[in-house]
Amino acid sequence: MRLGKTRLVPEFYVTDFRRSLAFYTDILGFSVAYDRPEERFAYLDLNGAELMIEQTVDPARMFNEGALDYPLGRGMHLQIEVPDVDALFARVQASGAPVPRAMEERWYRRDAVELGNRQFWVRDPDGYMLRFFQDLGQRPAPKEPAR
Asked: Which is higher by pLDDT, 85 or 60?
């Protein structure tokens, strides 16, 4: 694990630290790289995908603009690659977590190729949107019709 080298690590404010920590570790499979329980903070890792969760104990240290109303993180989601998306999807379904988009295969064009994902979307307990995927490889993109 190369903690500290990642150039972008999101930090989620959460409303119930224990509930969120259990969701990320027990259901999604993240491990706790390190934590500060007295600050209700954990740095999490899932195969190199890193994020932080915190239920702040010091309102002066919060850097948000406005109220923390559900769903948190509106307007963005995180895409996280996993080695076995089907096993993760089964755990998420068994947990009863909200799944706004069930398992699907989706192809995204990048220049002359399409990149494939087997993916699903889930909301964490505070409403943060997570899209987990497994790489399906690439294929030639269909020819675009002449204009």
From this structure: 85
Give yes or no for a contact between 14 and 54, defined as CB atoms under 8 angstroms apart: yes
DSSP sequence for 27-75:
IS--EEEEEEGGGTEEEEEETTEEEEEE--S-GGG---SS---SSTTTT
| 131 assigned to some structural domain | yes
pTM, whole model, 2 decimals? 0.88
Domain that holds residue 23: 11-58+76-140
pLDDT average, residue stretch 131-146: 89
Question: Could you tell me the two tokens for 115?
Answer: 């990149």
Q: What is the DSSP string of 111-145?
A: TTEEEEEEEEEEE-TT--EEEEEEEEEEEEPPPPP
